[in-house]
User: Which sequence fits this backbone?
């Protein structure tokens, strides 16, 4: 270990060399006088050295103590600042969640026995002891010193504030360290406080005490004692403002001061070194008993005086005494070395060029270099490479220009093994021009703390991401629930409409037959009842099949099925439908003469549905073709059956909705019969048989529906169509009132005509399209208009709006007749301005009552 300690042996050697040629008596006299003078000078120098050495020892001890205690308070400050920033960020979170964070942080610093927080009014709302002692929550801390100091500092951050010691509930002495919580604008939001027991905090002082005659004190700047080692109990809370040593330190106003005098505590003359520490309102003092130091000096002096009597006769004894002095100095050096080497911080001494002249054992341990490798090397060049840390090097170069080395900074350090450590430095410059050492730097390895802070930050980010992810999941679940609810409402609405439409014809014609039991039923009435009944049965069967498929209750029986005979059978069944629509069916491809594995009944159901759709949605004089394409490269080998039509084609948006139950696209506008379930059922049946179904379509060209089935496997899906019946219009020739019925369904229009067939006083005007209905309304100005809601081109609400905007038709009452029978549908119709809202199936008696009511009002208006 390199050091700059004085040596007293050199002058004596020079003196002896000068006296070597002098006569014996003169030499003896000169030697005695010289030795006497040397001893007197040595005694005085020893006195000065003893005082100076003791002050240096106390100064080093004070710096180590200041570093250790400040490090503890910095750790506490970092913890409180982190907790405060986290609470400010989540200020609206419940107190219990913050209490758990306080409790999780409690064990990070052993000296802390409790953590709690208070709001801007001083009311505590989160306390680590709140679970075992609920009284600590909602405690009013507004009159506590720490709360007042933080609250009175306005927008200025007071930093870490340490309170005076007091007795806690356990009877032990405690004190608090606190920090303010402030918002983004600097507003005061409360405090977060750590409570520390002095007995636990004493463990910080215990390793710093070096001898029985030394004492370490921690004092507030106003003189109140926070702690003293040894004998802490008798000094807690005492004030030393008027004491000589402490008052001189306060009056000097310097970071470090040295004093000697009689203390007011016990009347003992002491030597003391005081240093201001962080937090700023605390001072650490290291003192020793001056009498013990003097006694040590007197003991050394008496030894020299005793040697003086022997020096006259025995010169060798004088040299022995000098050597003994050197050994004592060496012990002092080793003593200082032990102090430095036992410190828990790195100690590095640098010359004015940044070269290492002093290092302790911890510096060797952290860097991995031996003392011999470190001494004489430039610290920054070896530990902080220029190419990796240009910012730090710019600071070093700037400091060289001003002949001052950088102080109080945090730098990386590359060890001999190539590892990187983070070191926090606190440096002290030396003002002695004669010393080669210009600075002593104390380095604290904060690598683990940095890793802990990084891990804590990473944990916070993970928690925030998990909260955000959970929020997204809840939002998605909410949206999914809303979509499911909307789908249910749409399903019920569509089912209501689809079921009520055929029921309207069945019950309507049934009521007519009931009203005329003596007359033979007209053939048309029975035919419409049967037609509507078959349509209703098909609808119910398809809904039940779809329900069984989706619930897993519908099973298929795959078997080898000859595809060509089955396909020809299906083409034969749809031939009458194709002829009625003017569509030509091309012969099936010979490639279809294969066997696939499928359920024969379900496959036939699927093919009939696809062929029927290809005919219904085709154009007049269009064609339908069936093509089979073998896919031998597939695994397993499969067959793709393609049904092609020359219809209007489908847009990508329509293709996306094609296999949704009850989605009929624009079939209602084009007056095409169907349930909207066939394709959805077909897809599920095909998937049950391990097959696939899809569509390829180009608007204006046509569509291709394909079914892919494994060879020696099968898949099927049904969809029975119904052909529309022609509508007839009936009007009485001799009438008093006109009633207009606008209805696009021929069967329902036939029912209305049959209802009014035996009313000679009413002439029924009928229209299958909204445009014709508006024209008839303007021409005949009927007494009443019966209006369907679901019409092609424009719905019933748009027709009602047109009627109200025309002066000729605005006063004509309009009654809605619709299969939309949900309560919200009726409320919407009445709110739109309909005189009455009737649902299908129509109650004929109620309809006739309404007709009689409005035709009677019309007659009274004409004066009939």
Assistant:
């Amino acid at each position: 270990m390199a050091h700059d300690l004085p040596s007293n042996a050199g002058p004596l050697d020079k003196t002896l060399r000068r006296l070597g040629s002098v006569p014996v008596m003169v030499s003896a006299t000169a030697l005695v006088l010289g030795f006497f003078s040397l001893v007197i000078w040595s005694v005085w120098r020893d006195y000065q050295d003893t005082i100076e050495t003791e002050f240096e020892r106390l100064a080093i001890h004070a710096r180590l103590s200041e570093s250790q205690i400040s490090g503890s308070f910095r750790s506490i400050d970092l913890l409180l600042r982190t907790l405060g920033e986290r609470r400010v960020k989540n200020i609206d979170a419940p107190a219990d969640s913050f209490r758990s964070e306080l409790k999780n942080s409690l064990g990070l610093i052993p000296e802390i026995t409790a953590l709690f927080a208070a709001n801007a009014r001083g009311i505590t709302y989160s306390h680590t002891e709140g679970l075992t002692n609920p009284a600590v929550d909602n405690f009013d801390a507004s009159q506590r010193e720490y709360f007042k100091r933080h609250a009175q500092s306005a927008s200025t951050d007071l930093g870490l504030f340490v309170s005076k010691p007091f007795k806690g509930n356990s009877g032990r002495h405690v004190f608090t360290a606190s920090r303010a919580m402030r918002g983004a604008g600097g507003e005061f939001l409360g405090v977060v406080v750590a409570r520390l027991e002095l007995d636990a905090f004493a463990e910080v002082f215990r390793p710093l005490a070096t001898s029985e005659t030394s004492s370490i004190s921690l004092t507030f700047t106003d003189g109140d004692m926070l702690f003293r080692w040894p004998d802490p109990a008798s000094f807690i809370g005492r004030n030393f403002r008027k004491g000589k040593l402490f008052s001189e330190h306060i009056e000097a106003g310097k970071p470090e001061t040295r004093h000697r005098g009689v203390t007011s505590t016990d009347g003992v003359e002491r030597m003391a070194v005081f240093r201001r520490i962080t937090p700023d309102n605390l001072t650490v003092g290291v003192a020793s008993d001056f009498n013990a130091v003097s006694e040590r000096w007197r003991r050394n002096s008496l030894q020299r005086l005793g040697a003086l009597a022997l020096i006259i006769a025995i010169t060798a004894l004088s040299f022995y005494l000098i050597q003994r002095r050197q050994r004592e100095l060496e012990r002092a050096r080793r003593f200082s070395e032990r102090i430095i080497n036992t410190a828990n911080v790195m100690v590095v001494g640098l010359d004015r060029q940044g070269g290492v002249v002093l290092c302790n054992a911890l510096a060797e341990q952290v860097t991995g270099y031996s003392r011999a490798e470190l001494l004489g090397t430039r610290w920054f060049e070896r530990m902080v490479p220029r190419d990796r840390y240009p910012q730090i090097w710019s600071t070093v170069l700037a400091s060289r220009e001003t002949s001052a080395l950088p102080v109080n900074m945090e730098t990386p350090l590359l060890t001999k093994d190539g590892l990187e450590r983070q070191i926090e430095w606190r440096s002290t410059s030396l003002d002695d021009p004669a010393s080669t050492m210009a600075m002593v730097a104390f380095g604290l390895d904060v690598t683990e703390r940095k890793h802990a802070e990084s891990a804590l930050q990473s944990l916070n980010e993970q928690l925030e991401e998990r909260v955000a992810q959970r929020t997204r999941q809840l939002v998605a679940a909410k949206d999914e629930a809303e979509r499911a609810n909307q789908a249910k409402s749409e399903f019920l609405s569509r089912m209501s409409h689809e079921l009520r439409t055929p029921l309207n014809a069945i019950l309507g014609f049934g009521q007519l037959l009931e009203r005329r039991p003596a007359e033979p039923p007209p053939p048309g009435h029975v035919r419409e009842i049967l037609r509507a009944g078959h349509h209703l049965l098909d609808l119910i069967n398809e809904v039940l099949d779809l329900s069984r498929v989706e619930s897993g209750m519908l099973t298929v029986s795959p078997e080898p099925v000859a595809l060509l005979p089955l396909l020809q059978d299906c083409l034969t069944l749809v031939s009458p439908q194709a002829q009625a629509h003017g569509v030509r069916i091309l012969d099936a491809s010979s490639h279809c003469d294969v066997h696939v594995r499928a359920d024969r009944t379900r496959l036939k159901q699927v093919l009939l549905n696809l062929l029927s759709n290809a005919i219904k949605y085709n154009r007049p004089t269009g064609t339908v073709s069936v093509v089979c394409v073998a896919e031998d490269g597939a695994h397993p080998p499969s067959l793709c059956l393609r049904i092609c039509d020359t219809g209007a084609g489908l847009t990508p948006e329509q293709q996306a909705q094609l296999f949704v139950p009850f989605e009929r696209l624009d079939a209602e506008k084009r007056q095409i019969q169907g349930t909207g379930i066939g394709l959805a059922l077909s897809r599920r049946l095909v998937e049950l048989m391990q097959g696939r179904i899809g569509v390829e379509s180009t608007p204006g060209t046509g569509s291709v529906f394909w079914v892919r089935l494994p060879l020696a496997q099968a898949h099927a899906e049904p969809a029975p169509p119904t052909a529309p019946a022609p509508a007839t219009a009936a009007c009485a020739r001799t009438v008093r009132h006109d009633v207009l019925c606008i209805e696009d369904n021929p069967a329902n229009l036939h029912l209305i005509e049959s209802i009014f067939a035996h009313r000679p006083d009413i002439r029924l005007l009928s229209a299958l399209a909204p445009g014709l209905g508006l024209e008839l309304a303007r021409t005949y100005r009927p007494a009443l208009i019966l209006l369907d809601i679901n019409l092609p081109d424009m719905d019933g609400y748009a027709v009602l709006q047109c009627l109200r905007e025309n002066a000729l038709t605005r006063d004509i009452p309009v009654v809605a007749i619709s299969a939309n029978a949900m309560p919200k549908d009726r409320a919407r119709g009445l709110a739109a301005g309909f005189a009455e809202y009737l649902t299908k199936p129509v109650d004929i008696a109620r309809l006739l009552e309404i007709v009689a009511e409005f035709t009677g009002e019309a007659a009274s208006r004409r004066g009939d």
Remarks:
- The chain has four domains: 56-292, 346-445, 555-710, 737-862.
- The chain is about 45% helix and 20% strand.
- Residues 1-22, 714-733 have pLDDT under 50 and may be disordered.
- The CA atoms of residues 348 and 359 lie 4 Å apart.
